[in-house]
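Review box. Two proteins, two foldings.
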Amino acid sequence: MKLADFLPVVLGTGFTFFMTVLGAAMVFLLGRQMKQSLLKGFMGFAGGVMVAASVWSLLLPAIEEAAAQGKSGVIPAGGGFLFGAVFFLAVDYVLQKLHAQKMEKLRAMEGSGRQHLSKKMTMLFLAVTLHNIPEGMAVGMAFAVVAQGSESAGVTMLSAIALAVGIGIQNFPEGAAIALPLRQENISRKKAFFYGALSGIVEPIAGILTVLIAGSIKAVLPWMLSFAAGAMIYVVVEELIPEAHVESGVKIGTIGALIGFLAMMVLDVALG
């Protein structure tokens, strides 16, 4: 591909990253401490967003991509999902050990004032970042197809732009989903913003790499999409849902999850 063919990829994935940055910037608009009800509602909202994104942005596209390659979508969708869940189960176990050791060291350093990421926030950051990789690949692949003049594959410049816009809009709540809870855990605004924005930087990187190796990456894209879905669902079930329902009788977490799921579903369906 020519150098000029990379410009649409950079602009498209750059926009999706910019929307993640905007979401993370919400941390500068809110106070230092959020009300517990607001925090639970937001954690539920983030969970709903991630569940809907796992279905409409990851699993269904994985099945469709496998079908376009003349293969059954069941194996890559189911197998990738299982691998993603098992992978994060292992990550969860390792993080428990590492964070236990870190907390012991922090307790031994009186008055150090050091800030650290909890296991929950580390898993959320990894899940969202992992989810952004196949999204960046999808945008990169779409623009790569257009640049190669392969519109017979059903991808036009307009549809590639629509895909980038849709993913970008989805990324706004994801950036906020990382930055705002970090602020609640007494992480500074700048650090919380940095981690929220950092989760989206993988999209331009993945998009550009996909253009470079478009031929070889296409076959494994369904597996990567479903792998990210399995990882996200694991984090939602293991961390976000329990966090949103710490106190019995409080339904704000459930309401937030329903609103988040509905919002992401509408975005995915409307923006295709």
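Next protein.
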Amino acid sequence: MTGFGKGEAVVRHKKITVEIRSLNSKQLDLNLRLPALYRRSENELRGIVTRSVRRGKVDLFVTVESTCAETPARIDRELFRSYLRQLTDALTYAGIDASYDALVPAVLRMPEVVTSDDETVSDEEHAALLTAAEAAVEALDAFRRQEGAILIADLVRRVDLIESYREQIEPYDRRRAETIRARILEQLGRLTIEVDRNRLEQEMIYYLEKLDITEEKVRLKNHCRYFREVAAEEEDAGRKLGFIAQEMGREINTTGSKANDTEIQILVVKMKDELEKIKEQVLNIL
């Protein structure tokens, strides 16, 4: 599920900012970009993220800004010049105009351009980094929960539509049996041979039973009810909702293959359309 979170912490003359972004993915793919000085904290940062995020393509960015005029930071002039030249050439090649006012902040954020004479991280600064990371993950989680609530509401609405189409099948289904029966008798009436009425009734009952969709309608109704229950009550329900959607699709397809009625086929197509949208959206749920 997509999301964004940001956390900040200030310690001494530094402001630490942690930003985390996530995109949909079946597995957890976590990528960290942080200053070299904070590399020793990488495992702890990963632990903070993985405790809350179970899957998705996740990028975590850590930036540090100075809050005072004099700092132990040093700019690598040669590296700065090299990055600036490469960015300028790339933008020119792409036909993009960019002023130096826009390029300079980007270059200063490049790896190793700005370094510090102080090569150690104090316990206080380390704790501030972790605090900012936890705040960013909490903000990400809140963002994803809000998006998830909207997504669940949309899924339930589509399940309600499928239920509505299923109910609309009822009058056509009752009429269908009589229509098929009348059609068979009409065709037999055109024949010039004697027909065993008892055998005819047996064969007709057998034929109509093969076209009966009562079980499919009942199972589809139960699947819709179960879908709502799981969506409302269970956490990390994405996979289970996907399985339920597959079962719903099976009943809808069987109904369509047995229908032998234009109006029912139209309703089946509408149900399939809503179900495909459900399957696409379910992939965004944990």
